[in-house]
Amino acid sequence: MIHKSLKSIADMCGGTLSRNQDDSIIIQGVGTDSRTIQPGNLFVPIVGEKFDGHAFAESVLASGAGAVLWQRDHQPIPDDLPLILVENTLTALQSLAAAYLSESRAKVIGITGSNGKTTVKDMVSALLETTFKVHKTQGNYNNHIGLPLTVLAMKEDTDVIVLEMGMSGRREIELLSTIARPDMTVITNVGEAHMLQLGSREEIARAKLEIISGMKPGGLLIYHGDEPLIRQVLAEEATVKHEGLRTFTFGNQEINDDYPTGLMFHARGIIFTSNRHAGEGFSLPLLGRHNVVNALAAMAVAAHLGIGDEAIRSGFANLKLSSMRIEAVETAFGVTVLNDAYNSSPTAVKAAVDVLGDMKGYHRRIAVLGDMLELGQREEEFHAEIGDYLSPDNADLVFTFGPLSLHTAKKAKDRFPEGAVVPFTDKEQLIEALLERVTEKDIVLVKASRGMRLEHVVDALKALPGGNNGVRG
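and the corresponding structure tokens:
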């Protein structure tokens, strides 16, 4: 973490010390939450519409904080506290992070995308940790406050910092890129998340490509080459590109610099080969061919930093994910549940349906799909598209839940036998119907936006008793 004198901190964030300050006080670490401030930390009071962290300044200092950033417009300014006076505490936090990173020798990897950015961040970190000292974004610290805090928590001897960059609107990733000044960036894809705020996938692509605006000259952009919108926006005159920008593409199609050449699926993951990595295959402990594409992005980062195939294999073997993705659960009853009831979007649902379709060794493949939320004016259209995507090739039975998913069921019914697609707007009725039809050796995908609370379906399947040969008594 940052370890600097109070005077150095003030210089780095563009602030000045309040009068009679001991400028040799050593600051170790930075925080914005008064409840978690540690002795020696710099406390940054964030000001919002309904809260003001300045109210906690005296209490955190009494608990051992080293100093506090203090916004000049908050009068009167206490003259008996160790303060750094700034025009805006949030802007000062961001400036401090940018200055700390610019002094570091660490290579900076920036990662964004509508889906998969957290998974790719974890993959990149796992591969790089085989060779380098790596610091990465933890949890959801990927916004205008979280990213600076991630940077300031970095150890001084870090070789590579891997920063996830999230957004809800335009110019947010541009700010993060300007703070981080990445050497290398990854765009995992352009999906429909934030359609409500941005209105079109073209605008989402423009927002994602803001990640290159702060890159160092000669930096490398690694992006999903199957997505034409990235190429389109990259060529637009309004897109900010620095001199010597290099590119590398990954994806499923052979037009890319790297793509899968072979896939073998099993219950706990995938073995795959790729165009750029000849020889033995790579074993990935994750479900879904979309995760093979994510893996190619991470492998590209590793390869460009000189990491060989054996180290890449070792990194995948030790991969740990920050947050839950598709969780495979074997129940006592004998049914396998693919639990992905945490978030949803059209791209994510199609990827999950592909996972189900690849599970060939089961009696039946059952999809339980709930509403995808916050998709804006085209929400009915997007749900209907899922119905078009479903087919007997990737599911044997389909249960839908929610008013929007009625559009999914209506479209899907044309492609399935009578009774194979059943819509519900009552969750208890859905659970009852599913439990009546599920049998031993079925596999059930449960996928929906978090607000639909379909973990109740997962819990009901897990509660089925075992030892009855797949027949409910």
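(Above: one complete record from the training split.) The longest strand covers residues 277-284.
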